[in-house]
Amino acid sequence: MTDPEAGKIHILSNATINKIAAGEVIERPASVVKELVENSLDAEATSIKVEITSDNSGITKIRISDDGYGMDADSALISFSRHATSKISKISDLYEISTMGFRGEALASIAAVSKVTMITKQRTLEPSPGTKIVIEGGDVVEQSPVSAPDGTSILVEKLFFNTPVRKKFLKSVKTEFTHIFRVVEEAALANSGISFQLLHNGKVSLSTGKSGSVLDTITYVYGTEYAKEMIPVKSLQTFMKVDGFCAPPSLDAPNSRKIIISVNNRPVYSLPLVQAVKRAYGTLLPRERYPVCFLNIRIDRKVVDVNVHPAKKEVRFSREKEITEEIVASVREALDSRNLLFSYGAGNKNIIRKVSVVDDTSQKPLFCVSSEDAVYNPYLGGGNKIPENRSDHSLAEYSTTDSRLRSSADTAESEEDDRKLPYMKVIGQVDDSYIVTQMRGSDEDEMVIIDQHAAHERIMYEIVCEKRTSGHISQELLVPSVIAFKPSESAALSENLQLLEEEGFFLEEFGKDTYALRAVPVILGKKAGTETLKDIVNDLLEGGRAQSLDILKEKISSTIACKAAIKAGTSLSVEQMERLVDQLSRTKNPYSCPHGRPTMISFSKSRLDSMFKRS
Predict the structure, then answer these.
(1) Distance of alpha carbon 278 from its chain centroid, rounded?
(2) I need a labelling partner for 40 at 20 to 30 A (CA). Which of 156, 176, 463, 473 fits?
(3) What is the DSSP letter of 527?
(4) pTM
């Protein structure tokens, strides 16, 4: 028999409603910390203390204390009601929100699924008592006057005691505390004028000052060695201002968690902004690595909507394209302002340092090798000379290498003032793969080891990009190359014919799953062009449609440059090494290959002395 009440519409109880709302706002202990820290910020606190207590069962207590303006007894009680807030009063206020909170849901949601003890005292000129309120599962169990300092302290216990399903899905103490640490870390970086302290079982995990300097906060959180590598990022437009720091490529990360962005001092997550920061680094980083960047964006409040997510973490922008392009430009400008070189430092750790161009060809060599090859010095002039006493095989190899260097010479060998690197005297070659040079830096001589393939790959990549822009990208083959593909490869190729044409490959269908290759990029020959096309098709299959057009273009250009570049294992004459180093020094970014690997690593003389235990 059918229950007559089944399917009948009814109104949920307030307790049920509060628990549902709490599930949207309070996902884990870190959510409690986030909401209460935001309340402290809105209360104009100058000092915020977060204390976490845990045992084997999990996090048992969360206490947030601040020295903000506090509340009187009536406001303290009302603050636990749903939609009770001092932040907004009418719907139009949502378009210009200047506070962290505004919905009036946080305290009610927390109190619905835990035991909360609030002690607060309003900041007044006249002496007044504080107020203590205890709420458990949404019910008020105590309200009384107490002696208390100005500000508010909130203790949260028994979190999710009445929602066991949510409690069951909490992770380990270590994981949950990591999320809490990130909340406090982000809040501190977004509000450097406020002192933050995070304690776990009485031990200080994070402590910052209130100097107002983001760099000081980075120092507090990550340490002096980390902070001193930061590069300032600044930009000022009519509707937005970008301010913060980005790290050199050597301080990369395996994920995007160290791209910390705040909008009007609110830590936010925005995939377009994160992608903009990564795009700004371009080929300075491998595709699977992420930059480290701390940015605060001040923007017209009418341009940003913070009311799109229950936890107020995600935001949307009405002028997203302009904002992301400005972030890309400002971060790139910051990176371009620093001449970067991978330096082999103490403890076998690669660090980035600044070098200045010193045009001194008369330095005394740190290392000497003998060579019967003619030495080519691009700074002193001189023509090309094929070394004598070479076998037919070595002459053929020399000729091929010379041809590759000539193909990259037109663009690379430009004005003398375009050099990004100091003059480097070639000493020799190691394992037919690495070029050893001596560089006169701004402080002292250094030994610089250059990866010849990565270096030439960088040169060729910039030429590919430049030829794409100028339109001179293709060379027609005298005899078209007919290539058969698998059905899946043919489908990927068919979808991207226009893109490949823009990169210099001209193809026509020549039967089922077969194409005639009629032209290849100008820096590739017929054989290399065919091999490169097959590699590109594999990349298209692996990436699928999820990749953006810019990413696909970058991958194709990188693949073309890689195939056209001098390979590791190729013996070079001193003349060829000098030419390669000279071409590298004139590229826009001589410090990494298109895949983000370093092109060179330096050893300072003082570092070498230290390694050999010299005083």
Answers:
(1) 5
(2) 176
(3) H
(4) 0.71
